[in-house]
Amino acid sequence: MDVRGLVVCGFLAGCASSTRDRAWLADELRERTGAATRPDGGGELPRGVVIEDGLDEDEVVSLALWRNPALRAELTRIDSARATLDEARRPANPQLTVLGPIGPVSAVATLLVPLESLWQMPSRTAAAAREADSTGEAVLMRALDLVRDARLLHIELGLAAERLNVRRQLAGFSKEVARIAAVSASVGDASPMNERVAATDAQINLDASETAELEASTARARLVTQLALGGAATHNVEAAFTTPASDLPAPDELVAIARAARPDVRAAELAVDAAAERAGWERSRRVALGAVVEGNWGQGDGGNMRLGGRAEIPLFGANPGGIGRADAEVLRVAAQHEVVARTALLEVVAARARVIQASRSRERYERDVLPALEEALTIATSIFDSGDESYLVVLDVLRRSGEARLRRAELLAEQRRAACELERALGARLVSANRVAERVRRQGAAP
User: Fold this and answer.
1) pTM of this prediction?
2) CA 230, CA 233: separation in Å to the nearest integer?
3) Which of 104, 170, 275, 400 has the fewest CB within 10 Å, making it most exposed?
């Protein structure tokens, strides 16, 4: 190894480093979400994902991390931060000046070595390393945001599909009732008013069914776009779900998990460390020194050399602007860290409350409301068929039953949305959040 390599290796051995690279991000996402980013040379779809049989939540998460172009753009931030770290770990290049002779004037060669870059290197590298760490955590949080967005669109598609199913059933039922009313009116068993009301209600339900079909198509298109899917199969993408859990840990436990596992909280902490290191670097720049080696060659004479130094005279200040900006940045990121920490606390508590409330309301509708209305609709329809009641009774019960079924679908979607937001607020899926938080705590406590 040459002298240059020895010098570089010697300085690199004492400089800070960062482990937040693309491989680290893939491992973190795999533990937090069960899926990872697409590696170089990966296929078009993640292993185990089949679009044609409907997409469940795990498949949506896998596709979001595998194909989303916004995430690929975010990954370049990690590459850029690591390139900045590599640049910070290298001393400044020496400067060579050569002047040739004209007439009796001697030739001069001057080599300037900027010594200040050597003692500034540890603080400069530490700042770049902490910024690379902060960038990696920020990209991880952005990936979790993209996963959350894809899951929310998946939930909207499921809600739209359920709404379409209910609307179609109501339209078919009201169409049949309108037919019965028309027959009854033709034989004198029902009034023309009942016939007109039934026909009008059938048209209203038909229009609502067509509108719900358009909403389902739009929701499907949004999900397909978010997942960057293509091909004819995507026109038939359907959403598949499991019932979300309603039993959740206590709020204090969830807040503790979020403080340890949530990437943007960790990114804000690392940003404070990076700002402090940069402030130290700016203070080290108050002194600028350089070593000078000069060689002279006269015409007909042998050469000679001189050694010297170069120093910047702080006549008008010793980097006051850089130090002032660095100190202001320390204050800014410290305040931003407090904002992020408080926001994380609020989001966890609010999302948990939403999950519990939506779960209670959904269970109440499924246990008490829907069975009673279904029974009332059956009774009212039977009485109408026998001619003992007008269609207005059936219409009222039908409307109430449809509204209850739609409300139940909305509550289930709200429970899923809140669970999705809660997992995003924690920084991991509920099944792995405790494990992730404990690992991060151990890493933070390691020397």
Assistant:
1) 0.84
2) 8
3) 104
As a residue count, the chain comes to 447
CB neighbours of residue 99 within 10 Å:
12
Q: How far apart are CA 410 and CA 276, in angstroms?
A: 48
Q: Which of 294, 268, 258, 266 is nearest to 428 (CA)?
A: 258
Owner of token pair 């896998």: 62
Hey, what domains does the chain have and what are their CATH numbers? Answer: 73-445 (1.20.1600.10)
Strand partners, 296: 108, 304
* 48 CB-near residues (< 8 Å, 6+ apart): 59, 62
Instruction: Give the pair of three-digit tokens for residue 439.
Output: 């690992």
DSSP β-bridge partners for residue 297: 107, 303
**For residue 103, how many C-alpha atoms fall within 13 Å in the half-sphere facing its CB?**
1
- Contact partners, residue 79, CB within 8 Å, separation at least 6: 22
- Residue 48 amino acid letter: G
What is d(CA 151, CA 378) in angstroms, rounded to the nearest whole number? 37
**d(C-alpha 424, C-alpha 408), whole Å:** 24
pLDDT in tens, 145-199: 999 999 999 999 999 999 999 899 888 888 877 887 787 777 776 677 777 877 8
**Residues in Cβ contact with 203 at an 8 Å cutoff, skipping those fewer than 6 apart:** none
Write out pLDDT tens, residues 281-333. 888 888 888 888 887 877 666 677 888 888 888 878 888 888 899 999 999 99
Distance CA 50, CA 21 (A): 30
